[in-house]
Amino acid sequence: MDVRYVPDHSVLSVVVGSRAYGLETEESDVDRRGVFVAPTRLFWRLAKPPTHVDGPLPEQFSWEVERFCGLALEANPTVLECLWSPIVEHTTAAGDELIAIRDAFLSERTNQTFVRYANAQFRRLDPARPKWKQAMHMIRLLLSGLHLARHGEPLVRVDAHRDRLLAVRRGELPWEEVDRWRSELTARFDDTGVLPAEPDRRRVEEYLTHTREAAL
User: Fold this and answer.
1) SS (HEC) of the chain
2) Residue ranges of the domains in the chain?
3) I need a surface site. Which of 23, 107, 146, 172 has the fewest CB within 10 A?
């Protein structure tokens, strides 16, 4: 039942994952993430629209716009990177507006969230038998977050690091070198960045209000 919200009410659909990062191989899936806007009148019922939807395509996941904005304000790395994906498959006026205000979601909190997400991946890795694909994405996440802290946008395509990252994925780098790379990147997050102390919640609220009014 919930699948009907996508694509019927989709406002943005992007490709994420290895194909967006420039790290795809012949076996890589097409990972899609998106945003949908549930009709405003449905919120007047006791049973509310879903906050997210799996599918209908394989490896596709979409958030209702309010949930998406809430996660973005919390500096969720997965959500933020959607707004900078180089592969946009579908967008509407509401999707274009969302991308236009993407900098409003940014704050110094991103330094903490990107490092925290990477550290969580690191703790799940066994140095004796590491999952090399997971290790690669841990490093990529740190590269993305560090670029965001210093330049005001995440590094989605990692072409300059592609060869070394794919070497990690293939298990060609010793674990000690991967761990050293991780430590060096993590330490650099302590440097002064360009992000504001707080996100611009007013701009986000204005966008949500306008979007809800348009969906009446």
Assistant:
1) CHHHHHHHCEEEEEEECHHHHCCCCCCCCCEEEEEECCCHHHHHCCCCCCCEEECCCCCEEEEEHHHHHHHHHCCCHHHHHHCCCCCEEEECHHHHHHHHCHHHHCCCHHHHHHHHHHHHHHHCCCCCCCCHHHHHHHHHHHHHHHHHHHHCCCCCCCHHHHHHHHHHHCCCCCHHHHHHHHHHHHHHHHCCCCCCCCCCHHHHHHHHHHHHHHCC
2) 2-105+200-214, 109-190
3) 172
